[in-house]
Design goal:
By secondary structure, the protein is mostly helical. The chain has a single domain, classed as Hypothetical protein af1432 (Orthogonal Bundle), CATH 1.10.3210. It is about 60% helix and about 0% strand. It is globular and about 60 Å long. The chain binds adenosine-5'-diphosphate and nickel (II) ion (NI).
């Protein structure tokens, strides 16, 4: 199979697996990350085939929707890639990307020898861009609603510097997630192209929060 065909088969697979996914982690999230990853890759010296496969498969089974099981995603990806005859070195790279790309795996203090690759950094930036800006705001409130969280509660203060365990357990109001993750992403971008796009999206979230508190306080 030529690479183009493999990518298209993978897209079909992901689309069908995610057909009932939560709105912020559905096929459209994958499609946006895929597009952004391809754009960022134009400015980087990377293997585009790995970038595309990794972007398509990165949320194939997010642990937070599987009782915290962090093996299901890499295993699902492996089974699929094997079934279409992909070579071992590519499968291993993709599994490493899925395992290490998430925000919370970066919070894991025990994980000192983390895997990294240029391809993963590109996909990670694309994933982070989809977590900020207008789309980021929409996804975050959708996830909060999905978990039946409060929108905001002035009495519950955000906690920055959460450990991986505390981050996963948090049931805090959705606004807190901006301080616990979203506003921190701008300074964690890996690539120059990613940083540039992140600037605007970051500013948009700051403006949103300012307006939100004004309205909360009854300004008309
Ligand atoms: P990662 O998998 O990289 O650790 P997540 O999957 O937790 O990151 O985050 C993806 C998106 O899901 C976030 O950008 C946000 O929109 C939403 N999300 C995750 N956790 C929360 C939360 N506690 N409150 C609100 N939204 C969340
Ligand atoms: Ni994602």
């Amino acid at each position: 199979m030529v690479q183009k065909e493999i990518i298209s088969k993978t897209a079909d697979f992901v689309r069908s697996v995610l057909k009932d996914a939560e709105g912020g982690h559905d096929w459209f999230h994958i499609e946006r990350v895929w597009k952004n990853a391809k754009h960022i890759a134009e400015h980087e010296d990377v293997d585009l085939f790995i970038v595309e496969l990794g972007a398509l498969l990165h949320d194939i089974a997010d642990a937070k929707f599987y009782d915290g099981d962090e093996n299901i995603g890499p295993e699902k990806a492996e089974r699929f890639l094997k079934s279409i005859g992909i070579e071992r070195s590519v499968i291993d790279h993709i599994k490493n990307i899925i395992r290490n790309i998430s925000y919370k795996s970066g919070l894991d203090a025990k994980n000192t020898k983390r895997f990294s690759s240029k391809e993963m950094q590109v996909i990670q930036d694309a994933d982070r861009l989809d977590a900020i800006g207008a789309i980021g705001i929409a996804r975050t409130f959708n996830y909060g609603g999905f978990k039946n969280r409060e929108i905001y509660n002035p009495e519950i203060k955000p906690e920055i510097n959460l450990t991986k365990e505390a981050y996963k357990k948090s049931t805090a109001p959705t606004i807190n997630h901006f301080y616990e993750k979203l506003l921190l992403l701008k300074n964690q971008m890996n690539t120059e192209a990613g940083k540039k796009i992140a600037e605007n999206r970051h500013k948009y979230m700051e403006d949103f929060l300012e307006q939100f508190y004004k309205e909360w306080d009854g300004e008309r």
